[in-house]
Amino acid sequence: MYKCRSRAQWVGFTVSALAMAIASERLSAAEPVAIGATEHVEVVGQAASLDQALKQQRNSDSVESVVHADGVAQLLDANVAEAVQRLPGISIERDQGEGRFVSVRGLGPDLNSVTINGTLVPSPESARRAVALDVLPSELVQSLSVIKTLTPDMDANSLGGTVDVRSLSAFDHEGLFYTGSTEAGYNKNTDQTSPKVSGAISDRFSLGDGIDNFGVAAALSWNKRDFGSDNVETGGDWDFTDGARLNSFEQRVYDITRERTGGGLNFDYKPDDDTSLYLRTLYSRYKDSETRNSTSLEFDPGLAAGERGKAKAKRKLKQREETQEIQSYVFGGERMMGLWTLSGQAGYSKSSEDSPGHIAGATFKGNSSFADSGFYDTEKPRPIIGPGFYDPTRFTLDKVDWEEQHTQDTEKNIRLDLARDYDVQGYASQAKFGGKVSRRKKDNDLNAWVYEDFSDLGYSDAQLNLDQFNKGNVHYSLGQFGPGISGSAIKDLIGGLNPGAYYDEEESRANDFTLHEDINAAYVMNTVDIDDWRFIAGMRYEGTKFEAKGTGVRDGAFEAQDTRRDYHHWLPGLHARYQLDKNTQVRAAWTNSVVRPTFGQLAPGFVIDDDVAEFGNPNLKPLESSNFDLGIEHFMGHAGTVSAFLFYKDIKNFVYNNDLAGSGVWADFTEAHTYANGDSAKLYGLELAYSQKFDWLPAPWNGVILGANTTFSRSKASIEGFDAASGGTRKRDIDLPNQSDTVGNLMLGWEDDTLSLRLSANYKSDYLYELAGINDKAHDLHVDSQTFVDFSARYSLSKNLQVTFDAQNLTDQPYFVYSGNSRFNNQYEEYGPTYSLGLTFTHF
């Protein structure tokens, strides 16, 4: 396993990049683009795409980082999340090796927001606010921006930043434009090949007396990917009271078919120079078919690595199909009336996740203990066990868990803004005010069945052994695995039983909930330009009405839960930008933001069974943050910039998982797991970024493009809870969950008129993933550092035809979660590299 723990390489590279920036500024003859200037450029290639992004970043009133598609409506990365990770201060969480969720400046994905064309995207997952960006096909995207300092006219619902996705518009190109791509991908881990096709088209038309004043743009993408991963995990089941003894571990093999379908249809209408109207629509469907075979060993008592003892064994199957959908519809416009500008927008978004009836778990138990057994390697535990462990006749069916689940999250909003330009003693100013009304509803419906008695089918327990459900030996790259379980055989078996007799009402009702979150917002702000200064000052108000309905289960009895809360926030903000010279500007901002806890944390359901309890907390306070930013940006001709930003966040009411057992009403409980608000947390850091195309050098060096960014951050938070050892309250300091001290990107590219090459690396240091008990730091979960290396190449066979090659995860970087210390596994997973070859035809 490759581990990159040193930060010195990123520090050294950043210092070198700054020195190169100064030197290149003296050598470059490129003329800067004046702030506010507009020009039309058909962008094709890395440097042109980067240059477009920097222009947007330069003129923004916020601290903003941008990824721009090139002239063929293609991001340089196949995945939206993986494209965003190239930006300063951004890291991503991966699922099965693919980028999914975005962290900004060390703050977890649930503390940031995602908007499509200015309207919030709700999350399809039942417990989360975070939106998995891999459900959005990159072909539908014209630009991505991460806004890190919010102005008062923006929603205040992000602590790290807002990821804003802008889809393709007909006014991004002159006249008829169309492109089509086909691609084949290969995953080395599973030896599978996957197809992909995509296309986009746009054109302008003349309506009435206008000329090319009506635009239509459409995009479509389809991708089917067959892949998998190999995993071993302990779930943190270590006993550290006497050395390091492992109680149990599990080996897993995932076989996955992931299918994405996405489409967008957008309309723009500009009847005159003062009026513009638009309609943006987007649909994305993400279907995941997963089969997971697993084996597990349980030692009693726990064993150290290399020791021998008795082991109980199980073999399990989980097989499910999950479909996530996102729909977004945004209608809006703008009207200029002399010194006044009126703009408005109405948005409707719906996300859903549907998991039809599926095998949540089919469990086969070993008929007897396996003597003289153990394990070796604490990072990637592998079994030491006799051949009987691989004999299917030694395992008997214990139970089958069957589930179905549907989650839906809808958000409707209306926004209205009114601005007036005016003059103050010769200085250009603008007053702006407006409001927004949003209504959000989240539903989760789970049904569960547990099949444990098969006597109605005429079987005794001993008759249903694994040999009858054997699917053959499973390939497992981390060692020998043994027989897999046939899902179709399991379904045939329980298909002959009456489901009503096996319905698990407690599990079903405790996980059902309906949450309403209604937000009314209003703001006022003023912008003024004084010589080389621009100031923006304002205030935003957000009032929230929250309601949570669900069911609790107390020792088998059901209790209806209904929690209602109102709360209000006044959020002042001040932005300043100073133009040192025509290429250099300084930014400063003081902003305030508020983020509601996740839906899983707010869920009203609970389960109390004897002396064990687990419950959400609908009375959690929202997280509040005061944010300070100070930075400098220097722009250097074509695709060139160097920047440095300091940031500081003072966060109140951060949320953490807590065990209340032994305290208050939970005094007689052994476990009482819930969520609590911490008092305060601090986050501070430094972002450094550099990019440059060396077009002033002689050929072939004039095609070199270099980019690097590094973010160093630190956090400190305090939590408190009941300490059973002392019988009192105990506090301890922690890092904020999901916060990496160091995040860095390095990109080396080269391009000319026909060939484009890019080698990129993304580094993320280790971070705290999940807290254990207040006095159990040894079982805190951490994700180990990761370095991903990717390569891409594009070659133009003609003006309109291009062949592409991409290679991802060249170093076969695994995902490793450890318990307390990196020597002790919680989860280890390998994915293997992925290669793809494609062909793109473009007309513009």
From TrEMBL:
It is a multi-pass membrane protein. SUPFAM superfamilies: Porins. PROSITE patterns: TONB_DEPENDENT_REC_3 (PS52016). This is TonB-dependent receptor. Residues 58-162 form the TonB-dependent receptor plug domain. It comes from Pseudomonas taetrolens. Residues 378-810 form the TonB-dependent receptor-like beta-barrel domain. GO terms for cellular component: cell outer membrane. Residues 1-29 form the signal peptide. Keywords: Cell outer membrane, Membrane, Receptor, Signal, TonB box, Transmembrane, Transmembrane beta strand, Transport. Its main location: membrane. It is found in: Cell outer membrane. Pfam families: Plug, TonB_dep_Rec_b-barrel. Belongs to the TonB-dependent receptor family.
